[in-house]
Amino acid sequence: MTDARALMRQQARQQRRALTARERDRATTAINSRALALLDASIQRIAAYMAVASELSVAPLIDALLADKRQLYLPKIAADRSLAFARWRGDFRHLQPNAFGILEPMSAASECVNASGLDAIVVPLVAFDSRCQRLGSGAGFYDRALHHRLHSEGAPMLIGCAFDCQHVDVIPSAPWDVALDVVVTETQILRRSAAWPTG
Fold it and tell me: Is residue 22 scored above 60 in pLDDT?
């Protein structure tokens, strides 16, 4: 299974890198707009991510949430390799690259919240399938942080944002995999259950 997942990651990244600048820009605009429509006014504490390499940028979504005075959080990796979320108010001077080169808030660990303290999390992904199963980068940070969602629904709402080309037939499941509630692409919104709003 490990080899199959590694190959799937490689192929999905290749597909993502193959997008032209025009295709990427048009898809990014559509995906961010669709994701924003899912986050109604009752959803106030929202985590997103800073894209790296060929990842889909959710910067337009972040900008819209900050303009709407929502509480915006970004992932932060602690010394013990656990993942928590730190409040960010839009000032890039308060970000620094972590060991993986990903920008994260300079907040102390004591100022971070766990995933269970958020209303929604926009989760980065490498590939996804029609069951809203997510294939991440392989480090397991999000699966560990979202362990409480492994066998139950409820907050936070887990939203994956990705290009259509990252859609695969079936992701071989591992016992620690936490499924997403919703996956948003430039052409569709996939839902794992009816528990979340339709946007």
Answer: yes
